[in-house]
Design brief:
Number of helices: 10
Oligomer: single chain
Strand order of the largest sheet: 1-9-8-7-4-2-3
Helix content: 25-40%
Radius of gyration: 21 Å
Order of helices and strands: HHEHEHEEEEEEEHHHHEEHEH
Amino acid sequence: MSETLRIPDHLLPADGRFGAGPSKVRREQLDALVAAGPALLGTSHRQAPVRNLVGRVREGLGTFFDAPDGYEVVLGVGGSTAFWDVATFGLVEAKAQHLSFGEFGSKFAAATTKAPFLDDSSVITAPPGTRPEAVAETGIDTYAWPQNETSTGVAAPVRRVQGADDGALVLVDATSAAGGLDVDVSQADVYYFAPQKNFASDGGLWLGLFSPAALERAARIAAGDRWVPDFLNLQTAIDNSRLNQTYNTPSLSTLVTLDAQVQWLNAQGGLPFAAARTADSAGRLYRWAEASPVASPYVARPEDRSNVIVTVDFDEGVDAARIAAVLRSHGIVDVEPYRKLGRNQLRIATFVAIEPDDVSALIACIDHVVEQLL
């Protein structure tokens, strides 16, 4: 049993949260939440204090991503899952192309394919652990893919599709990438994400950097005869965002902790700092896995490996589930593999809030457990 295997205290990381779901939340974010309690929590989201907070988040994200002229930060309630439906109703005109190379890219593809008012989507797939490339097709008005496939630890570049029809949009799901992977947002028309990964907040909110072309497309569709549920109306979200508010009540604690993380990241040097920090953490894991006699990186091509989600396979003689159980019994949590992959592996987040030295401590703990199991 896992409780019979002990990891010495001196090997343990200072913080044992390495989950690919909600990120470790820094103590300073919690302090900001406590400080905001008397002034913000329990107050109207349409009054100045909360609208000022939303405005600070929007401005801070624009600074962090060095938003090009004309790009706007838009936000709405519901998280990235809701945004797939928002985009299906409000951004795709007739037909979308999707890159599907894991769980999350496939879900957006399913949404646009099921929409009765759109043509069947073009879906380009690749086996888990690899990624496909977008291919220009006549009649495609929207190209979509995840920058980081959270289920597998594969990262894809953010760049325009050469040869695409004039006016075609590029939509990039950056939920687990934004704030941790380098990006030139001018290469996308909507770079969207939820704040529970590198921005170390809670879920239930979607945010996106929208190009002028995407804003124009949203306005044109909204002015047409397509019926859209009020909650999923993108133009409503855009109009409210310009007033520094949301259509319906957001979680104020999410906004407070998001703002604290954005301000911290910008004070540390912005996106260059964040990308370098996650690359440091991920690099420690990849170098260890490549040198290990019992482990190896799941993603074969180094250029496809994510710096925010690291997946490591283990030989048949080493039970990764047992390793995860021992780690969990010592407060090192959420390193189990993505459930649908069914692989003998660990999935380790290296989000920007995670200390690189804690990653090194995790590696030492894994090595210790493996030695005890062999």
